[in-house]
Amino acid sequence: MRIAIISFFHTESSLCLAKYLAKQGHVVDYYFVANLLHDRRGTSGFEYPKAKRTLGNHQLSREEAPEIIDYMEGLPVRIFLSRIVHHDRYPWLNKMLMRLNMLQVKHRHYDAINIVGQISWIMEAHRVLKDENLIHTFHELGSHDGPLQPKPIVQAAISDGSKVILHSAATYQRFLTIPGADPAKTTMIPFGKFETLPLYVKHQEVALPFKDLSKPLLLFYGYILPYKGLDVLAEAMKQLQSDWDKFNLVIAGNGSDPTLPFFQSLPNAHVINRFLSNDEMMNLIRQSSIILLPYHTASQTGIIPTCTLYGKPFIATRVGAFPESLRDGYNGLLVDPNDPVAFAEAMHRVITDASLLATLSEGASQYGNGDAFDWEQIAEKTIKFFK
């Protein structure tokens, strides 16, 4: 098959998919929709530091993006930047540019076109390509809290009969509650480990203020939002006061939460309340012992396929896709949501039982090897659905 993947973010998963589709003999053109203005020359797991600053669809050379071109070496994959001016500015100009870029994609007569993401600019791509063999991949359908109010692009995909890929059984079941959603045109295919992230890591340690770095390091990271359960973690920490001298805790990420002053006051905690670069994030993960996911709600998360690159296990709540990705006692510990006592007990177990932590770490290192999160199996399922 000749396949186009058009990515609006989510490059960590969609670039890996492009590679493994190509490894099965398919020809893949990968388009990343990028800003011309205020371009950071890359995004998570994909950097193009020397790319020409031109509008339209521009194929990247090895000189422009050496790491990702080397990652695809020997495979029938071409990488394009699909440039617009800016995602949030000059709407009419961007609408025209997006349409021109997508018409070029349309005129290349692909056997399947996979649009990845759910931001507003996808709508223009959908309008141009909806009569093709179009497959949408949605990471999110709408807000996490309250009744589902689907994003406009989700409604458009349903109305126009596009195929839809969702990454977890939980999200799949939620999608099917939307009026008009067609099970025959919908499937659940997870994503695997984010293999492109380590391509850009400089292996520099993030300095931490702890006197004893040999203690287990527990890490909560990512954009800080209320649904991610820092309030649960704060209450769990209060339950563990007698254990504070046995472990260190890092809270890292931009955003706000009323519990942050509490964490900042703890003798064994360090708060990094700002945006983290990819390099900082990956190095914090490497230094950690276990990752904390005390979420109230979730769909799926990129944290699991990121941290398992380094064999890091998890303490997580049974929400969203977490029970699908994590096996209790194998690569993590699962507890009921909104239960700080149970979360504290799980934390106590890993900080006081080195053999348990070693077992969970070994399980985490096997994530994506011959299981449902193996990219080879994911590519096979994806091709069957495309056809």
Q: Briefly, what is this?
A:
It contains 14 helices and 16 strands.
What is the subunit organization of this protein?
single chain
Beta strands, count: 16
Rg from C-alpha positions?
21 Å
Order of helices and strands: EHEEEEHEHEHEHEHEEHEHEHEHEHEHHH
DSSP helix count?
14
Spatially, the strands of the biggest sheet line up as 5-6-2-1-7-8-9-10
SS strand fraction: 15-25%
Biggest sheet layout: 8 strands, mixed
Write down the overall mean pLDDT: 94
Secondary-structure-derived class:
alpha/beta
Poorly predicted regions are none
Helix proportion range: 25-40%
- The separation of the N and C termini measures 9 Å
What would you call the shape?
globular
Protein topology:
Elements: E1 2-7, H1 11-23, E2 27-35, E3 42-43, E4 46-47, E5 56-59, H2 66-71, E6 77-84, H3 91-106, E7 112-116, H4 122-129, E8 134-138, H5 152-159, E9 163-166, H6 169-175, E10 186-188, E11 217-221, H7 230-239, E12 248-252, H8 260-265, E13 269-272, H9 278-287, E14 290-293, H10 303-307, E15 314-317, H11 322-325, E16 332-335, H12 340-352, H13 354-365, H14 375-386
Helix pairs in contact: 1-14, 3-4, 7-12
